[in-house]
Amino acid sequence: MNARERLIVGLDVPTLGEAEKIVSTLGDDVLFYKIGYQLVFAGGLEFARELAQSGKKIFLDMKLLDIDNTIASGVENIVKMGMSMLTLHAYPKAMKAAVEAARGSDLCLLGVTVLTSMDEQDLIAAGYEYDPHTLVLRRAEQALAAGMGGIVCSAEESSAVRKIVGPNMAIVTPGIRPAGSEKGDQKRVMTPADALKAGSSHLVVARPIVRAADPKEAARAILAEMDAALPA
After folding, report:
1. DSSP 8-class letter at 135
2. Which of 115, 138, 227, 231 has the fewest CB atoms lying closer than 10 Å?
């Protein structure tokens, strides 16, 4: 895959109008978009379907978690929408139900390990007995066993996770910040080049592109950095 196939631009904006403007501005430079809760609840599901039909790849970031039957039913309909990636929390039963529901399709199911906005103190407060690194690796093992297409983790864990899941599973990394940009509410971040070198296969970038004065130029700069980091 080249950089264009690996960069996922997060459409983390409040309205469809803003999302449409970003997609129009970025044009053919960007192939892959992430749509999450904020846009979904502003009509983003139909927009996601339209983008997919136009030839764009869509990462639907829903972080599903529910009883097995509900997970399976939801995944079956998401497959029909033509989505490329879908997240669910990396709980073994939920992952197994999703994998069975998506069997035979091109939908890449991603297990969310530990949110990049969480550190060890956050996990302790939530009742977990593991530090972020240990919990990420445990969930990576469970995602592999369940037959998932990939996982979501911070770039700090990418290298260790890659050793667990092997060369074929996707490792999708949020919390990507070009050198010199602000972290925002992310606590475990890395530059695009370093994330790829660490083992990430796809990079999710939102604010550094969608809130840039010139989103197209920002995207091109990140793509250039990614290209330079990929093997020739």
Report:
1. H
2. 231
109-121 pLDDT, tens digit each:
999 988 878 888 9
Name the pTM for this structure: 0.92
CB environment 71-95: b (16+ within 10 A), e (fewer): bbebbeebbebbbbbbbbbbbeebb
- Phi and psi based region of residue 127 (left: phi greater than 0; alpha: psi -120 to 50; beta: remaining): left
Q: Which helix (H) or strand (E) holds 134?
A: helix 132-146
Task: Locate 179 and state its tokens.
Answer: 């050198």
- Chain Cα centroid distance, residue 24: 21
Question: CB–CB of 114/123 below 8 Å?
Answer: yes
Element spanning 173, H or E: strand 170-173
DSSP 23: H
The pLDDT tens digits of the residues spanning 32-83 come to 999 999 999 999 999 999 999 999 999 999 999 999 999 999 999 999 999 9
The angle at the Cα of 98, spanning 133 to 73, to the nearest 5 degrees, equals 140
